[in-house]
Amino acid sequence: xxxxxxxxxxxxxxxxxxxxxxxxxxxxxxxxxxxxxxxxxxxxxxxxxxxxxxxxxxxxxxxxxxxxxxxxxxxxxxxxxxxxxxxxxxxxxxxxxxxxxxxxxxxxxxxxxxxxxxxxxxx
Length: 123
Prior knowledge:
Number of helices: 2
Distance between the termini: 12 Å
CATH class: Alpha Beta
Structural class: alpha/beta
Order of helices and strands: EHEEHE
CATH superfamily: Macrophage Migration Inhibitory Factor
Strand content: 25-35%
Number of domains: 1
Strand order of the largest sheet: 2-1-3-4
Helix content: 25-40%
């Protein structure tokens, strides 16, 4: 955790590979110093069928799912860093966005937490 889910149009892969896009989002998240590097998970879903407004234009959007507890300023900086860095990869694409969704700590659970010695920590 955190999880970064990237949605993008198929045509976005004409100029950069999915691996390049994933690495860029990973680096953007890491640059904020909000997360441990080994905890950042990034994946991408590519869409062939979509609409953006009234026409079909290239797009990329990152949904950042993070544990609650960061300030609004930290979350805003995370989204801004992701969008800024993706805009540098795709200067001609207008539809670039990101938003942050918080996990509630009380309801989050993963396999590592089955270990009785596990302790949740944030950087």
